[in-house]
Every structure is written in C-alpha cells, then in structure tokens.
Design a protein that fits this description.
Blueprint: E1 3-8, H1 19-27, E2 30-33, H2 39-42, E3 50-53, E4 56-57, E5 60-61, H3 65-77, E6 81-86, H4 96-105, E7 109-113, H5 118-125, E8 139-143, H6 157-163, E9 166-170, H7 176-185, E10 193-198, E11 206-211, H8 215-222, E12 228-232, H9 239-242, E13 254-257, H10 264-273, E14 277-280, E15 285-288, H11 293-300, E16 307-310, H12 313-325, E17 337-340, H13 343-351, H14 365-375, E18 381-387, H15 393-400, E19 404-414, E20 428-431, H16 434-443, E21 453-456, H17 459-467, E22 474-475, H18 481-497
Parallel strand pairs: 1-6, 1-7, 2-3, 2-6, 8-9, 13-14, 13-20, 16-17, 16-18, 18-19, 20-21, 21-22
Antiparallel strand pairs: 4-5, 9-12, 10-11, 10-12, 15-19
Helix pairs in contact: 12-13, 14-15, 16-17
C-alpha cells in the first residue's frame, strides 16, 4: 500500500517550505495541491509525477472535500507515495485533521509534515510580533469562516474580546465588518489597533492599519480583498518600528527578467531578496552547436594553447561538457592560462577546479584586451570558445599583435519556442545582453518598452538598445548580474528620495 503525506506548504513565500516538506515532494508519485500552495514549490516534484489541483477559493471549488478524500485513498491504494500539499499548516484551519481521520478510518498509512502557518508568518512579515513584553502575553488564532451549517457560533466572543491580548483571524475577510462589530459589542475598545494583511509573505503583500471601529472602511477604500489575515491588538503599534518586508528597496516593483530560462534563477533570486515581484519572460534559448569538429580538434590539442578565454558562463559550461564527452576533465587544460569575463564565469570555472590566472577589471571584451596587452600576445596561441554571433574585438587584437586566435563558435542563441505573455505590465525590464534586446524586439516589439524603466547590464547592451531608439534609464557600472541588481536598486532608492 502507498502512503499519504499531509504537507504544509507554508504561508506563501516558497522558501518557507520545510526541509522535510521539500524532501517528500521530491519523492512523490502524486502531488495534490491547494490554491494557496505556491507554484514554485511544485517545481520540486519529479518530472514524471502527477500533479493535481484541488484548490478552493471563495465560492469556487475545483473539487469538493469528499472528492479530495476519495482521491487520496484512490492514489494510496495504487501503492503510490502521495503528497497532499496544503497552504500554511495542515492542522491549522486547513481540514488536514479531517483528511487524516478519513485515511485512518480506511487503514491508509499517512504522515503529517507541519508547515509554517500564515497565522504567525504573515504578521511577522508585516512587522507585527504577536507577543511582546508589555504589550501582549496571550494570543489566539480564530477562524473567520465557521461552518455555515452551525445554528450558532462556537466562538466565545466575550472571552476573546476581553481576555486575549492579540487576536489573529484566518479566512475572515468576507466577515471583517461582522468580526469588528462583535468584538466591540463584547467589550473590545473600538480604538484598538487592527491590521489586515493581504497576500502576506509575497512580493504582492499589502497591509492596512487603523482603529478596529474603522478597519472595514479602510480596507474597502484600499481595495484589499481575500486572501488576507486580520490581526487585532496593541502589538500592531510596533509595526511602524519593526516593519521590514515592505521597506525593501524594490518592494512593490514588478521586474521583468529576459535572460534564458536556465540562467534566470540567480537574477530572479537577487531581485526577490530586494523585494521585487519577478516576471520571467525569457527571450533566449541557448543551443550548443553540434556536431562541432573544430571544438573537438581544439580539445585534442589543448596543450598547444597559451591561454583559453571564456567570455560567458554559457561558453564555459558548454566547453566543459564537450570536454567530458571526449573523456577529459579540467586536468586536460594543462599549463594553459585561463582568462574569464565576469565574476559569474570565474565562479563557474572555480567550481570545476580552475582558478583564473587573470581577471579583467572591466567585464567586456575591451577589458580582456587590456589584460592581454599586459600579458603579451606575440607568438602565442589563444583559444576563444564563444557564441556564434559574438564580437571580434579580442580576435582582432590578438591577430594584429602577432598572435594566433582560434575563435570557435560553440553555441547559438535562438528565440524561445513559446514566448511568455506579460500577464501584468512590468515596472522595470532588465536586459543582460544584446541578444536579449534583439530577441525582445522580435517577440514583443518596442511598444512594450514605452512604459516603465529599462535597465541595461552594460554599455554594449545599452548601445544595442539605442540602435532601436530606446534610451535605457539604468545602465550598470559593473557589467554583471550583481552589478545590474545594484544599479536597479540604487535607482529605486534615488527615486524614492525625490
């Protein structure tokens, strides 16, 4: 027989999934997930796993609870490892207890993997500690959506209103006005601080704070709708001092990343750390040139090269994969010097056990030329594995200086087969190469760039943008991914100060 894991997906931020939760998702044959389970968590599932959506939104249920229960049993009886992925924690107002009971009654093996409940995580991201010396020693979690079949509320409103310092209501947005009214009627001070937090822990988080008596009106004026958490209590007064999530420099900004899909993660992570909502719109696919007889010949003759120049992570990774396919590894580079462009390329080489011999201060081909001017090129042979459409600055310099440069195209950039459509307009669009600019124009056209800010990774990319009549608002002074993120961040801070 199979086994069912009831896994808490956490409050929204995909990085708040537990280590064990991630492990069982990776092992699962079937993943059955809810509306509030972040899609990035599903990426941990095996490529051949069956992924089934059973989400429930207000008045919209993809599958009834009875149907979900039956589905869990059905999959377990097929001897499958099943993950039931639930938002927050499975046992905190998530009906996980009911699902566990249903499985137990049918002798189906199950295990509960607790998750970080939104009841504690969302207030923390909003700058609200639920308990704090001198403010609150007690806290209560309350459902804001009781079973409608009940004849009377099971909530002890008077005790909550007068006996608990901090109140946290989950699933209560539809009943916000009624919740505030009942608390006030049962003895809570109408001027008690209240806060509603929408989409907590995500880049789209929004919060509204005000007196309990006015909170329904304030939320309506702000246009905040479910999903949301309601917090009531004196600890909310600490929000202004302790708020951190919504103060990050790129918070509230939608930033488009146009890099190839396999390269987008690092840039996306850095932007998310600064508070941005990242829109992935890859404009490039990296395709190795195969078969590649010149590359194979160069690998067989590596001992003849004085220096190998790597102009990108793409070139380096494809080169080392070709090296592996020919039964060789980094030892085959022998005495050849290694010269990369950019810290990312250098880090890739270091991961292969290669410490770069030289590193240009400027991450361009012109920067490499300055290094070669110091090293000397006359009478020496260089290997330059590069993109098919790459620039010829380095090759020309070496040849003019009396050296030999074997410039070998090892990959080409192509348009994505399925370009992504922009679901929402980005505030900032980032470009990391001339190829991303050219392909973006082909896929989307220049009209998309008329609104929002344009960020370029460096002068070469900026020059390509200008050829299309686009003047970037931001150009990085350090021509790598970290430099681009720093430039975007600095620009955002400067605009806030205006």
């Amino acid at each position: 027989m199979g086994k069912v894991y009831l896994v808490g997906a956490g409050p929204g931020d995909p990085k708040l999934i537990t280590v064990k939760g991630r492990e069982v998702i990776r092992r699962a044959d079937t993943v059955i997930y809810d509306y509030l389970a972040h899609k990035d968590i599903l990426a941990f599932a095996r490529a051949d796993a069956e992924v089934i959506y059973v989400g429930k939104q207000a008045s919209r249920h993809a599958m009834s609870q009875d149907g979900i229960n039956a589905l869990l049993v059905e999959k377990a009886l097929l001897r499958e490892t099943v993950v039931r992925l639930k938002g927050g924690d499975p046992y905190i107002f998530g009906r996980g207890g009911e699902e566990a009971a249903y499985l137990a009654e049918r002798a189906i093996q199950f295990e509960v993997v607790p998750g970080i409940t939104s009841a504690i995580a969302v207030p923390a991201y909003a700058g609200i500690p639920l308990t704090y010396r001198g403010y609150a020693s007690t806290v209560a979690f309350i459902t804001g959506h009781e079973d409608e079949r009940k004849e009377a509320s099971a909530i002890r409103w008077h005790e909550l209103a007068t006996g608990i310092d901090t109140l946290v209501f989950l699933m209560g947005m539809k009943h916000l006005g009624e919740i505030a009214r009942r608390l006030i009627e049962e003895g809570r001070d109408p001027d008690t601080d209240a806060c509603v937090i929408q989409w907590g822990t995500l880049p789209t988080q929004r919060s509204v704070t005000g007196p309990l008596k006015d909170i329904e009106r304030l939320v309506g004026e702000a246009g905040i709708s479910p999903p949301g958490i309601i917090v009531v209590g004196a600890v909310i007064s600490l929000k202004e001092k302790l708020g951190w999530f919504e103060r990050r420099p790129l918070f509230g900004k939608r930033v488009a990343v146009t890099r190839a899909s396999h390269q987008s993660a690092k840039l996306g992570e850095l932007l998310v750390e600064r508070g941005a909502e990242v829109i992935y719109a890859p404009t490039i696919e990296i395709v190795p040139i195969e078969p590649n007889l010149p590359l194979s010949a160069a690998i067989e003759g590596l001992k003849d090269y004085f220096c190998i120049i790597f102009t990108s992570v793409n070139g380096a990774s494809i080169f080392f994969e070709a090296l592996r396919k020919q039964g060789k590894d980094s030892r085959s580079l022998g005495p050849a010097k290694v010269l990369p462009i950019g810290t990312a390329t250098a880090r890739f080489l270091e991961s292969r056990g290669i410490v770069p011999d030289h590193m240009p201060h400027e991450f361009t081909q012109e920067g490499i030329v300055r290094v070669l001017d110091e090293v000397g090129v006359k009478g020496r042979r260089f290997l330059l594995p590069r993109a098919e459409e790459g620039r010829d600055v380095v090759t020309k310099y070496i040849q003019d200086g009396g050296g030999v440069c074997d410039q070998i195209p090892i990959y080409r950039t192509e348009l994505p087969r399925r370009p992504e459509a922009f679901a929402s307009k980005p505030d900032i669009i980032t470009f990391t190469s001339s190829s991303t600019v050219r392909n973006f124009m082909t896929l989307y056209g220049a009209d998309v760039l008329k609104e929002g800010l344009i960020a370029s990774i460096g002068p070469i990319t900026t020059e390509t943008l200008r050829k299309y009549g686009i003047e970037p608002h931001i150009t990085a002074s350090r021509y790598d991914i970290q430099g681009l993120v720093d430039a975007v961040t600095l620009d955002a801070l400067q605009r806030k100060d205006l």
